[in-house]
Task: structure prediction
Amino acid sequence: MRVVSGIQPTGNLHLGNYLGAIVNWVRMQDEGECLFFLADLHAISMPYDRAELGRATREMAAALIAAGVDPERAILFNQARVPAHAELQWLLNGTARMGWLSRMTQFKDKSGKNREGASIALFAYPVLQAADVLLYRATHVPVGEDQKQHIELMRDIADKFNADTETETFVLPEPYIGVTAARIMSLRDGTAKMSKSDPSDMSRINLSDDAALVAQKIRKAKTDPEPLPETMDELAGRPEARNLVSIYAALSDVAPAAVLAEFAGKGFGAFKPALADLTVARLAPVSERFNALKQDAAAIDAILDSGSARAAALGAPVLADAYRALGLLSGR
Ligand code: TYM
Result:
């Protein structure tokens, strides 16, 4: 089993990233060879602050380590230090189809009404994401539900590349998506996913938030006046309630039904303080480690340097195979 996944270094690591993806990354470190990276090349597909990107990349690396990614066991690096990602993307651009990319919901969401003004990088974003994974012949890609379409696309690209070149250059990766926390929603709107780009900071819990702020965000989270029911089915039509129950379940590592067994008949006046206590207890050690680690830029750079060298060595033979499969005369 070879595991590859990434996270954009823009904004804060929030509870959606943590429960939807990072918890599984940490778990998978014991089960296979893992490569985790900061997707700084993806970050330039949207307007961003050049002066901030380096700091944000180091900070996200610190957040991942604080959350349990262990640079001794997993290879941790940033894309920009491994040029093979960008290089392989170009090779895959010959395989990816305009029609496939046009169907990607992330492109539609992020380009909005201004499609003509969107960058080529935003359109080709999923091809770089395919390169990220195919470069290492990964078998498993732990992600949240929102990335499923991108994983299906990378399988299509790998399959067509292999078929067109009559080779077995790439392995078709499987998405690994947890059940309870696959899609954590905004605290302000149970129909929108919790996201780094939501303008309201009250919509998400960041791993860097202190205990008082976490409690305040949960207290102010949108809910309804009904008590909690006995089954998840009865939460249909109550997206905010469903979301808070899912968060509670994921944080305590039990099924949502077990949470309802405990809280059925109780209102949010009782549930929210319990959720706040649980969230603070789970996140406090992470945010403590994060605050200590992020001060030491040199240590983080050393980790990313060494991770990049290891990643580059693993990717090099696959990249060379891709050049050869395409009939390109390269010096590789
Ligand atoms: P990004 O940076 O948006 O998110 C990182 C991871 O967090 C998951 N996630 C969520 N899971 C549950 N509920 C949510 N509300 C939530 N919000 C985010 C995401 O699914 C993701 O797993 N394109 C990717 C980064 C990337 C990548 C890759 C991932 C680049 N190359 C190759 C896998 C493989 C992204 O922007 O994730």
Summary: Residues 5-8, 16-17, 20-21, 39, 42, 129, 132-133, 141, 143-144, 146-147, 181, 183-184, 193-195 surround tryptophanyl-5'AMP (CB under 6 Å). The CA atoms of residues 83 and 182 lie 31 Å apart. The longest helix spans residues 297-325.
